[in-house]
Design brief:
By secondary structure, the chain is α/β, with parallel strands linked by helices. The chain has helices at residues 13-27, 62-69, 84-93, 97-100, 126-137, 142-148, 197-209, 230-237, 243-268, 304-307, 334-341, 358-364, 427-440; strands at 37-43, 72-78, 106-107, 113-114, 117-118, 152-157, 171-172, 213-218, 275-281, 308-314, 322-324, 329-330, 366-372, 375-376, 386-393, 396-401, 408-411. The chain has one domain (37-363): Alkaline Phosphatase, subunit A (3-Layer(aba) Sandwich), CATH 3.40.720.10.
């Protein structure tokens, strides 16, 4: 049978209509957007005002300044707890601390030691740690929801909840083996301190697989050990003669440099336009001038220098840059924002708002938080682990302590470093905010 004598296949009317529609869309210039990539950058132990774009007199953060200028940047952002593990848990699954149940960093044993071993390493404590991991694993989280939607996902840096893959990550730096030092990130903590080669490899794999990606980037910076590059240390030693403070300042700029390295890598790969970048810190820090640790009223405290953070969202051409100094936002808003941008259904457990919806955020005008003990006395006793609760509503901030410490009320805009307690002078405001705080979450007496 010659070519001309072959039968012509009967055309499919539906297929013809689809092809015609595609041809029309092509001619009209309509473009089908690929799912956006997601990069979540998490600073570790940094005060909300330790950025040059927020007016710090010594610290230079040019790369984060540029990111902030290109982003929808909220300078009145807050985390749900002033301690890294519960704060990160909230960022990952969009729930407040007493709701997801991770209220501290470690389980309490005598001096966090059991038979000479850290509780994470002790076989006797393993069932208790597993109980926390398993309960958290059952809750919807970013990596699994995005992976189910076809994303590749990489965990780098700080991670507390056991093996990252059990929570939905397709790739991970952290091994989480207690026998090999697994506690809060292990090998993952090398990211950025030792370059970004694991991220570059992951980006290569995502490109080969032609899949969108989610990057959890939580470098151990500017967290201790404060061992910055010598040139940076000498730079800040000239500005600040106290060696402990100079080292911390140098660590902040080192972190900024590593953020620049990551953002440049994305740009060089042509990923800028279709990648949403989000930024937050896990908790605050004030450097002690006497040693390498933090000063009071910062990390592990409900003061703004322990819980406030800039929150940035950059998506070129999709989200207009804006520096917002008035709207209150919470770290629980990050997860639902990411999911909505990616077209993934937000589970009911995530009660935060879309950071793009400035009208809804202004209408809410309230954030809440839970400050727990560093070491949990129990994996299930939220009340027993509680130290304080806090609420910021408009310009007012209330701190209620679990013990007999006096209630504290501040006008947080006029008094951002909380020097003047107004509780005795404004009892009606204390009552009003206490009622709101109790409606959010109240300790249950046993």
């Amino acid at each position: 049978m010659n070519q001309l004598s072959r039968k012509t296949p009967r055309s499919d009317p539906l297929l013809f209509k689809v092809k015609s529609l595609l041809f029309f869309l092509l001619l009209s210039g309509t473009v089908f957007a690929a799912p956006p990539n997601v990069v979540l950058i998490l600073s570790d132990d940094q005060s909300w005002n330790d950025y040059s774009f927020l007016g710090h007199s010594s610290i230079e953060t040019p790369h984060l300044d540029k990111l902030a200028a290109e982003s929808l940047t909220y300078t009145r952002g807050y985390v749900t707890s002033p301690l890294c593990r519960p704060s990160l848990a909230s960022i990952f699954n969009g729930q407040h601390t007493p709701h997801h149940g991770i209220t501290g960093n470690d389980l309490s044993t005598a001096g966090r030691q059991l038979n000479g071993q850290h509780s994470r390493v002790s076989p006797a404590m393993a069932p208790q740690h597993e109980k926390i991991y398993a309960a958290y694993e059952k809750q919807p989280g970013l990596a699994r929801l995005l992976s189910d939607a076809g994303y590749l996902s990489l965990q780098t840096g700080k991670w507390w909840e056991g093996k990252p893959q059990r929570h939905g990550f397709t790739h991970a730096m952290t091994h989480a083996d207690p026998a090999r030092g697994g506690r809060h990130g292990d090998v993952g903590l090398k990211i950025s301190r030792d370059g970004i080669a694991p991220i570059q490899k992951f980006l290569d794999e995502a490109k080969t697989a032609e899949k969108p990606f989610f990057l959890w980037h939580a470098p151990f910076l500017p967290h201790t050990p404060h061992n910055p590059p010598e040139a940076l240390y000498q730079k800040y030693l000239k500005r600040e003669p106290n060696k402990f403070i100079a080292r911390y300042y140098a660590m902040v700029e080192w972190f900024d440099q590593t953020c620049g390295e990551l953002l440049d890598e994305l740009d060089q790969r042509g990923l800028r336009e279709n990648t949403i970048i989000l930024y937050v810190t896990d908790n605050g820090w004030i450097q002690s001038p006497d040693n390498g640790r933090f000063s009071p009223r910062s990390k592990q405290s409900p003061y703004d220098t322990g819980i406030r953070t800039p929150i940035m969202v950059r998506f070129p051409g999709k989200i207009d840059p804006l520096m917002d100094h008035s709207t209150l936002v919470s770290s629980i808003d990050l997860a639902p924002t990411i999911l909505k941008v990616c077209g993934v259904k937000v589970p009911p457990s995530m009660t935060g708002l879309d950071l793009r919806d400035t009208a809804a955020l202004k209408k809410r005008n309230t954030i809440y938080g839970y400050d727990g003990h560093h070491d949990m006395i129990s994996a299930s006793d939220r009340t027993g682990n509680l130290e304080s609760r806090y609420i910021v509503q408009g310009n007012s901030k209330l701190i209620l302590y679990a013990d007999d410490s006096p209630t504290e009320l501040y006008h947080i805009l006029k008094d951002p470093f909380e020097k003047k307690n107004l509780a005795e002078k404004q009892p009606k405001k204390v009552t009003e905010l206490t009622q709101a705080l109790n409606l959010w979450w109240a300790p249950v007496k046993k």
